[in-house]
Structure formats: C-alpha cells, structure tokens
Fold this sequence. Notes:
Elements: E1 11-12, H1 14-20, E2 26-30, H2 34-39, E3 41-42, E4 46-47, H3 60-76, E5 84-88, H4 94-105, E6 111-114, H5 117-123, E7 128-129, E8 149-150, H6 152-158, E9 164-168, H7 172-176, E10 192-193, H8 209-218, E11 226-230, H9 236-246, E12 252-255, H10 258-262
Parallel strand pairs: 1-6, 2-4, 2-5, 5-6, 8-12, 9-10, 9-11, 11-12
Antiparallel strand pairs: 3-7
Helix pairs in contact: 4-9
Amino acid sequence: MTEAIQSPDLLWSRETLRARLDDPSLRLIDVRPGERYTMGHITGARHFDIYALNCDDTDNAPLKSFTRMWAFLLARRGVSFEDTIVFCGEITGMTAARGLWFLEYLGHQDVHVLDGGYSGWEAAGLPVTRDASAVTAAVFSFEADHSRLATYQDVLAAIETDNTIVLDTRSWAEWTGEDRRSNRGGTIPGSIHLEWVNHLTEQGTMKPAHELRALFEGHGVTPDKEVIALCQTGYRSAHAYLALRLLGYPKVRNYLGSWNEWGNRDGMPVARPTNSKASHPTP
C-alpha cells in the first residue's frame, strides 16, 4: 500500500488551485523573478520576488526587523492574515517553500505551495495572462511561532544534545568546504548532508511520500528527533522543512541565517567533512 502524505493540504494540485481561483479570500503569490512574471503568470497572481530577502543575523533585534519587513511587504501586496495564501514558483522549488515556511513562522495556518509551479500549470494548458492584478493594500498582523525558526543560539544549543538533527541541504562541495561561500567553509559539526534537489521528481514536483520517507530515514533523519535544516540563506533548507512537514515530522525548524550567518560569525564551530563519498548514503 502506497504511503499517503501526512499533511497534504500544504501542497495544492493544479486542480485544487483552479477550483479556488475565484475565491475572494485567495491570494496567489508568484515568487518567480519579475521578468518571468511579466512574460506570463496565472490569472490573479500577485508578484513578490522574495529571493533577495535574506537575514544573516538572527539576534533578536535584526530578526524582529526582518519579520516586520516581511509583514509590511505582504500587506503592500494586499495580503492579510485572514487570507488563503498559495505560493507559486517555476516548479515546486525552494523559493515557494521559503514563502510557506516564513508564513508558518508568522503563525499563518492557511498557506500552501502549488505543486509543479507555473511550469506545470502552463504545460497542462491552463489559462495564463500577462495582465497584472489590481491590488489594494491590506493589514498583515501576526504573532510569530518561534517553534518554526532556529537562530544561531538554537543551533549552538542543539549540537550539544542527542535530541536534534542538523540537516545540511547544500551541495556536497559546500558541505565539505570545497565550495566556500562565506568567510569559512564547511558545515556545522555533526550535521547530516542531504541535498535538497533529491526531494523532487524530474518534472519538478515533490516526490511521493514513500520515496521521501525512504530518502530521509536512509540518511538518518528520523521523526523521533527534532530537525533543524540549513543551507546558505534559508531557501534550500525551507524545501527540506516543507518535505518533512508533508511527512508529518512533528518538530522541524529552518535555520534562517544558515551558513551565511554561521560561516561569517566569529566563534562558531566548523567541521570539514571528508571529501570522499564512499561512506555517504546514496539518495
């Protein structure tokens, strides 16, 4: 018997979105680059390219400022806390997953990702447009759910315990430090490496539940532990967050600052794993 996704509503199919397009409470957020949006998008989609919105300091004050900026930008696009929010990328990619994760961090419980993204919608012959939607600014009030986000202090505490898995979703070369994108290369001591692209099918949709579970558990990422995911800036790790949420893992957090913070912050412990893949599990 094929395993079912535990939280299926996080991923919306094309059919689900099409049936809801006329819902006045629906806010479809297209997170692709602006030039891709102007070339064509799903009717009613509002553009919000979140890829440049990064936070490389998870101390309290900068984190609060970053969170308020997100709320302000959502409100400017006519998104309120009461709306149903769907993020659409080119595929079921990391940017849409980052949007879902951050809205869950903001306490929103009616947020989704379009599985297959715009490419899947267009390939299915569903209607698209180049017309921008009229937008009236809203008010986005929120109460952050800190169980969704990890700071560098949280990660420091976690690596001293046996109850938390630190999951590094970057490329192999980034994990080993061969590809260095911060002052220091490497990874957080004790981390497990599983690159985020392994969550996806060749068509750019999320893999079925039984494949995802075998993938994660085969790498030692099990639901009895808390999981903190990281990458360079919190996008690829948000994709792992989404995949694990779909499987029903009860305690998953995304390290927002990720290696952009850890690798540049003085005093953080760094490991340089072996560059040999001989003993590394095959996805």
